[in-house]
Specification:
This protein is α+β, with helices and mostly antiparallel strands. The chain contains five helices and seven strands. A seven-stranded antiparallel sheet has the order 1-2-3-4-7-6-5, with helices on one face.
Length: 178
């Protein structure tokens, strides 16, 4: 009887040790960071955003209506920022060039926007590139041949930006997109 109990206890300890090793491997492999990147990219608890990169500025008023937010506009040196603030606390900035083209979108708030909408035709390219990024515990930056998407933050304070470098007006840098 004692031998059986001792054997059962040894098996239990061995199983616990294997589970702990598997958990440590999972944690250290970056699966957590990968999961967070997927959640951000797939828009976990999305807050809708509708301006499309490369699209016309006319979409901004529709965005305000769809998001149920307050629209504010401010003029930069070579661009206009259309800011939509929602009741949930998410703020989406849409950057419009003098030619009337949305060249960048940024966001900050408790939830990320649904990236499929603001990225429009660039979304599939972003998804393919994001799948190739090695997960790490730092801000996500995905750069393709035509679009750059950056996301960072922590729970209830998520922020990011997406822009098309070829559409950025002269005299404007990526640092101006906040």
């Amino acid at each position: 009887m004692i031998r059986e109990w001792a054997a059962a206890a040894a098996r239990s300890r061995a199983i616990s040790a294997r589970k702990e090793q598997a958990t440590n491997r999972w944690w250290q492999s970056g699966s957590i960071a990968s999961g967070i990147a997927i959640l951000v990219g797939a828009s976990w608890c999305p807050c809708p955003a509708y301006a499309v990169l490369g699209g016309p500025a006319d979409s901004v008023a529709a965005d305000q209506t769809r998001m149920g937010g307050h629209l504010a506009s401010s003029k930069g040196p070579n661009f206009t920022v259309e800011q939509v603030s929602t009741s949930s606390g998410t703020v989406v900035n849409e950057y419009v060039s003098p030619a009337g083209t949305v060249f960048a979108v940024s966001w900050r708030g408790p939830r990320p926007p649904d990236l499929s909408q603001p990225l429009g035709s660039y979304f599939a390219e972003y998804q393919a590139a994001a799948a190739q990024v090695r997960p790490q515990r730092r801000p996500l930056k995905v750069t393709t041949g035509t679009v750059v998407v950056e996301a960072a933050g922590h729970m209830r304070d998520l922020r990011g930006r997406a822009y098309v470098p070829s559409l950025i007006p002269a005299g404007v840098t990526a640092d101006d997109i906040q």
